[in-house]
Specification:
Layout: E1 2-6, H1 10-21, E2 27-30, E3 43-45, E4 48-52, H2 56-61, H3 63-69, E5 73-76, E6 79-83, E7 89-99, E8 105-114, E9 121-129, H4 133-151, E10 163-166, E11 174-181, E12 187-194, E13 202-210
Length: 219
């Protein structure tokens, strides 16, 4: 997640939001709402994105690409991650909200897991606009319910969010929340809101789900 403010242009505010989210130096491909469940948890530290190590199956499928594009390995919390270097293509589901001075902008990403015959599947939904942070959360809940119903999928633990967790760099201007439900947690909604863009500035708030470089490598 990231936000940006700029006095001259909304594009520059968007670029600042990408920088704060740790994905400003990648070629971003926006995709629809069906990410693979094991590839939605990259780590962002100090504006750098780290993705999980490729599986043995991925290494067999894409040996040349992985050797050419991956240069650095980092250890985070005793696990190996790959550093996402400049100009790599990454796939994201993104909620992007932009506005001018005094406007509220909110963006949210919702994730819901469902039962599948092989392994749990996951859907992602995005909400953006001028809603409150709670209203955006509720929109994500409703969209996930409709998506599951339309596809005849059985959700895993999709009740109303039970836990509200402040996360990220909350300030007087910017609010970030993570809403979770289920045991283990099988629905997550990430929300970001700027209640009022300061005078004379343009603003942008983004929430993203990042796929690792191997999931949709043909893109």
């Amino acid at each position: 997640m990231g936000y940006g403010l700029h006095p001259e242009h909304s594009i520059n505010a968007y670029d600042e939001a990408l920088r704060r989210a740790g994905i400003c130096d990648q070629n971003i491909i926006q995709v629809s709402s069906v990410p693979p469940p094991e590839q939605i948890s990259p780590v962002v530290r100090h504006n750098i994105t780290y993705v999980p190590m490729p599986t043995e199956e991925q290494l067999k499928l894409f040996p040349n690409i992985t050797r050419k594009k991956i240069h650095r390995v980092a250890i985070i919390d005793k696990k190996q991650y790959l550093v996402l270097d400049e100009s790599m293509c990454i796939n994201v589901v993104m909620a992007r909200s932009e506005g001018a001075q005094f406007q509220r902008i909110t963006s949210s990403i919702g994730l819901v897991w469902y039962a599948s015959y092989k392994a749990p599947g996951v859907f992602a939904v995005e909400d953006h606009g001028n809603n409150t942070i709670e209203g955006s959360r509720d929109n994500c809940c409703e969209m996930m319910r409709r998506m599951l119903k339309a596809r005849g999928k059985t959700p895993i633990k999709i009740d109303e969010p039970k836990r509200e967790i402040p996360f990220g760099k909350n300030t007087e201007l910017v609010k970030m929340r993570l809403w979770e439900c289920g045991k283990p947690m099988k629905m997550k909604i990430y929300t970001m809101s700027i209640d009022g863009i300061p005078e004379g500035l343009n603003g942008c708030a983004i929430s993203t789900v990042v796929f690792d470089p191997f999931t949709e490598i043909h893109s």
